[in-house]
Amino acid sequence: MASAKKQTKQDLENKIAELEAKLNQLSTQLEAKPAPKPAETKPAEAKPAEAKPAETKPVQLTKDLDHLVASI
């Protein structure tokens, strides 16, 4: 049983490393993209901006990492 638990722990550590690499790659891609310049509008015509959901991949990877770390 100890060897099975040790293997499971190693599998989890490998998965964490893989997810961290993906998270770092996505973060680098986001940082590399220049921020879009907002279009100039007159204050009287300005409408409240609708909230757009943020990208879920980095958040999901972070949640996966947290879950895996908690499992160890």
TrEMBL record:
Extent of Basic and acidic residues compositional bias: 39-55, 63-72
User: Domain of life of the organism in this record?
Assistant: Archaea
Q: Where is this region: Disordered?
A: 25-72
Q: What is this protein called?
A: Trans-sialidase
